[in-house]
User: What shape does this take?
Amino acid sequence: MTLKSFCTFYECDNIDDVRIKHKDGEKYYWQLVSNSILTGCKNAELIIYAPYKNEIADIKELASNYDGDQNKVAWINWSNDDDLPYLENGGYYKNIKTITFDVPEYDKIALENRVRLAIKEVQNKLK
Assistant: This one.
């Protein structure tokens, strides 16, 4: 995620703003709809985060001690601090923002129907 993307999200007041203003807003929206279906939740939450400059050292430390696949986080340690996206401490933007919304039932139904159609398409191509 880039700082430009973070700032675009941050300037949004609700999920409709995200869908209109962010270049990937529709993708994020439908991912959140999908997640709400899978978890059985009536609402969804978009959480965006960008570290403050003074958090970079801690992030690099956590990445160097990561117990999982090091290939997923090694780039963090290889990067110079100024190559990583961060916010200046005390600046305009806070480092985290949450947008919570009720997921319309009609969008859940629409997505489930699209998935069913996609499954049928794949099954027909495999015959």
Q: What stands out?
A: The chain is about 50% helix and 10% strand. The chain has two domains: 3-50+93-126, 55-84. The chain has a mean pLDDT of 93. The beta strands are 43-49, 96-102.
